[in-house]
Amino acid sequence: MKKHTTLFLFIALAMVGISACNPSDEQSSNGDSSAVLTVSPADFEAKVDGDSVKLYTLTNGTAAAAITNYGARVVSLHVPDKNGNLVDVVLGYTDLASYRQPGEGFYGAVVGRYGNRIAKGQFELEGQQYQLELNDGPNTLHGGTNGFFAKVWEVKHVTDSSVEFQYVSPDGDAGYPGKLEATVVYTLTADNGLDIAYRATTDKATVINLTNHAYFNLSGEGDTTILDHLLTIRADGYTPVDETLIPTGVITPVDNTPFDFRQPTPIGARIDTADTQLVLGKGYDHNFALKKEPGLQLVATVESPKTGIVMDILTEEPGLQFYSGNFMNKVQNAKGGKIYGYRSAFCLETQHFPDSPNQPDFPSTVLEPKSEYRTRTVYQFR
Question: What SS3 class is residue 283?
């Protein structure tokens, strides 16, 4: 009977990609509507600056993802828990209008051109100084006030399990040099992985650092905490920050610090200790220097003790930003009529290091003409 119920849930999820659904009409095997998609495609269909926005549903037979071309955002991601029930592990809003509100938090978006922070919004490249838009106190965060997270991406190709988006950023966009053609492909793999592949080219030397800003709670979006989640990060060092959360330029060993997640550790075990770095970040909001070789490798694992859902993160990137939801506070218009509270989600953003354009000892983020930016990250569920 459970196999038939699971198949029914999958069909119901797949049909969301065809027509708008009424969340109140959907039921799971135990009558819990949290196990089905709680957003309607109709609430994401609109014109933004003349471009069409839609919601796309990816399915693989056991899991489903809803993704919009506004900001190339992951709106929901349903994966099976230890009992085979589908759980939405990604936080998000109920409609497009909520994603467009000021200060929405980059929920599920591809951020760029440069994910994370650049000090004072300034950098020098090939002898020329560039000034970016400031949107995080004295710094630039995630591409500026109108970064990739707020753009309508062109839909290039769609299948049952994948979607390809492209955005062309003109020379001077938000202060960045060069015309940049960026592509992201989301694929829901047969073994329940969300595979995110990025590519980009430029006609002028520029800097680039693309990542996805999904907020996760493996106990289900709307659960009140992530402090009980067990986290493992394969990193021997991290990059300490100043009072504006800009890296100081050094890589500090995690030994004997609250940043040592080399063994599975509850996120909340040391988060409120009187560590200077935790005080500055109001919790974890730091880049980890990953211990890995070139290529796609396992770098982090998270597990919910409530659902038994385990998420492995594999990436080609050298860094991982761990954010523990320290600035979340009664987030409104969430899916299913929920309100997201303090530390009710975490982000694990694969990336090059913050402020790399101003840090010569960090891995370079410069992209030259005739070269191709290419990187890949997989969020794998089991």
Answer: coil
CA distance 75 to 92: 5
Q: Write down the catalytic residue from 78, 213, 286, 352.
A: 213
Question: 84-121, pLDDT tens digit by residue?
Answer: 999 999 999 999 999 999 989 999 999 999 999 999 99
Residue 25: pLDDT band with limits 50, 70, 90: very low
Spot the catalytic one: 78, 229, 349, 352. Answer: 349
Please state, in angstroms and rounded to a whole number, the distance separating the CA atoms of residues 23 and 37: 7
- Predicted TM-score (pTM) of the model is 0.90
Residue 317 pLDDT grade (very low, low, confident, very high; cuts 50, 70, 90): very high
Q: How far apart are CA 67 and CA 55, in angstroms?
A: 6
Annotated active-site residue 104? The verdict is no
Q: What is the CATH number of the domain that holds 44?
A: 2.70.98.10
Domain count, the chain: 2
Same domain as 346, residue 287: yes
Q: Quick check: is 187 in a domain?
A: yes
Q: Which residues are annotated as a binding site?
A: 116-117, 213-215, 285
DSSP 123-182: EEETTEEEEPPP-BTTBEETTSTT-GGGSB-EEEEE-SSEEEEEEEEPTTGGG--S-EEE
* Domain membership flag for residue 172: yes
**What is the residue range of 346's domain?**
230-376
Average pLDDT, the chain: 91
